Amino acid sequence: MKALGIDPGTRSFDLTVVDGEEVVWEDSIDTTAIAENPQSLIEAIEEANEVDIIVGPSGYGVPITFNRDIIDPRRFALEVLLLTRDEDLRSGVEKGELGIRVYEAIVKVVVDLWRRGLPVCYIPSCILLPTIPAYRKINKLDMGTADKMAVAALGVFDQSSRESVDYAEVNFILVEMGFGYNAAIAIDGGRIVDAVGGTLFQTSFLSMGAVDGEIAVMGREWIRSDVFHGGVADICGTLSLDEAIDEYERFEEPYYSAMESMLEGLEKTVRSLTSSVKEPREILLSGRYARHERLRNLVCERLGEIAPVRQLNNLLGAKISKEAAQGYAIIGEGIAGGVFSDLIKHMRIDEARGTVLNWVFHPRLKNAKERLLKTYIETVREPKL
Fold first, then answer.
1. CA-based torsion, 25, 29, 34, 39: positive or negative
2. Which of 7, 114, 266, 369 lies at 20 to 30 Å from 62 by C-alpha?
3. Alpha-carbon separation of residue 94 from 68, 153, 353 (angstroms)
4. What single DSSP character describes residue 180?
5. Any idea of the CA torsion for 144, 147, 149, 154, to the nearest 10 degrees?
């Protein structure tokens, strides 16, 4: 069974083809290039040759949904997968917002894949999984987007195969360190039981993370592109992580405070998840910045007191694609009935239901909750509610 996974990163779209448990083809394309010319991604998919299933960029997640089930691909991509309106997309593109260019690229790609009738499916994010208790979901939306869920699936397979244990014995906390966001996911018994998504994290490289309610009120009006601001890059006025670390190590402000906030936020978040996973076997690191040696060393110093820290292993044959693309691919392979089908069933990924606003109860969001549900129902045949 051959499956292609597409991970829509802030910096690059990574593509991975797995044949069973092995990566047999991969590619990485600059996100801006895809936003300007989505045909470049289609050409890459064609270069990958025939596959049985493609897992498309799934944003904030949706219950497993196939191309054939989608009625209106643009609304589905923009409003269901990305929780975004046309005016936010236009405004962000006009301002040249890097994060919104990712959204623009995803919308174009989803529409193009649908028009071509390719065997594409879209997958859930963490909050849609029944393995996280409802009480942990209350008034949350981002408990790890679909790509973070995919990395967690790769982590379950990794620990199971490396330590020769059943999925039910797998136990770890995943820390994803990306260019835009950080996230942490707690896995117990081989299932996702808790998580803190990028917009709930304390200070990521681009994103400010969790927002004090009083600050939100002071801001009055917020738009989609605001979630890509307020992090280390804005505090320090640089997109260079090396520069930020250089000045951090010299105790120069505001670099020191910015980096310390991100590092302490990582530690606090992981420690908070030990209330859900009491004694994690290990902490797995993944994401673009997990490959940055200097940052990884700083993180390991913090987290090593909690549990052994290790970088997540790539699949056999993987050389350039990030972990999320590999995770997307193995989930697709499992959905299609391949060797990872037991993993999909064990993690209960196929049982995802509803929308990501199901557990939000603030009256201010009543209309948004109803609108998302209505859009999901109108853009998909036989929605999984």
1. negative
2. 266
3. 33, 36, 35
4. S
5. -140
Of 116, 121, 89, 83, which Cα lies nearest the Cα of 102?
89
Cβ distance 208 to 230 under 8 Å?
yes
Only one residue has tokens 């936003």, namely: 35
The Cα–Cα gap between 33 and 28 comes to 11
Q: What's the CATH code of the domain at 275?
A: 3.30.420.40
Number of domains in the chain: 1
Quickly tell me which residue has 């290990």 as its tokens: 282
Confidence of residue 263 (pLDDT cuts 50, 70, 90): very high
pLDDT, one tens digit per residue, over 98-107 is 678 788 888 9
Domain that holds residue 99: 2-379
Helices H / strands E in the chain, number of each: 14, 11
- Asked if residue 384 belongs to a domain, the reply is no
Instruction: Confirm if 59 and 146 have CB atoms less than 8 A apart.
Output: yes
Question: So what's the pLDDT on residue 219?
Answer: 85
- The sheet carrying 22-30 orders its strands as 22-30, 12-19, 2-8, 53-55, 120-122, 65-66
What is the pTM (predicted TM-score) of this model?
A: 0.96
Q: What is the DSSP string of 60-84?
A: T--SSEEGGGBS-HHHIIIIIIS--
List the one residue out of 37, 32, 82 whose CA is nearest residue 56: 82
Q: Please give the structure tokens belonging to residue 347.
A: 């993690």
